[in-house]
Amino acid sequence: MTVIEKARRAKQASKILANLTPEERAKGLMYMADELEAGQSQILAANQEDLDAAENAGITGAMLKRLALSEAKIGQMAQALRQIGLLQDTVGKTVQLITRPNGLTIKKVKVPFGVIGIIYESRPNVTADAAGLCIKSGNAVILRGGKEALRTNTAIAQSLRIGLNKAGITPECIQFVDNPSRLEAHTMMNLRGLIDLLIPRGGPGLIKATLENASVPVIETGVGNCHSYVDAAADLDMAYSIAVNAKLSNPAVCNAMETLLVHHSIAHKFLPKLAHDLPDQGWSLGDAPEAWT
Closest Cα to residue 20, out of 115, 92, 102? Predict the structure, then answer.
């Protein structure tokens, strides 16, 4: 099936999804999580094939690590879907109400975009995360992952679609592009009227190509070098937990923290504990001698 046909199906499905109740969407997410765990063996087998192919192609290091899944990671992906399902549902919520002098009432209401296209690279967990966030917000989604994770992403998407179907929601809400060619990506970038919003997640080359070629609206994402800032008024225990999680939960991904900025007035309190604990986990702080005085 071509990406154009997938987009047409997603567009039709988006009209159904937008009219579901919050409870129905939450149920869909719970079933998606269940099926992700139920399909674990097939997903891991597909992932091993992708890993073998990647190693044969000379891929090493961080990229290979981003590609790899495990039982624990699949469990985390499923748990993330359940947590998304428990979030407050804001579809249809009135966020602003204005009454004009002439009596005209104007409301600002949160509504779904319709169909969101997401182009991403070698992290299979994005397939589940992105699909979950889109379903929660009442949007159908078209997923186009990197070629390195094609088998894994296909297996994940299949499990998610089965989950939706078991929850009584059309599985056409989730479309996966199984042809990872640049031509298909370029086609997605120009499906005005079928794709309402496009989000590229990946390196600077992908984001640059999307911005230069897309005729559909695009949300530009960052390419890494993420910063965290600890203010003088911060809860230091909370800031410590956030900083450790931002760096250590998955150091290989593009949104892992690379730079930690700390207000000078609390640096002498905050940084020593971080410097003491990080080596136990294989990390250390860079040199910033002025921060210790």
Answer: 92
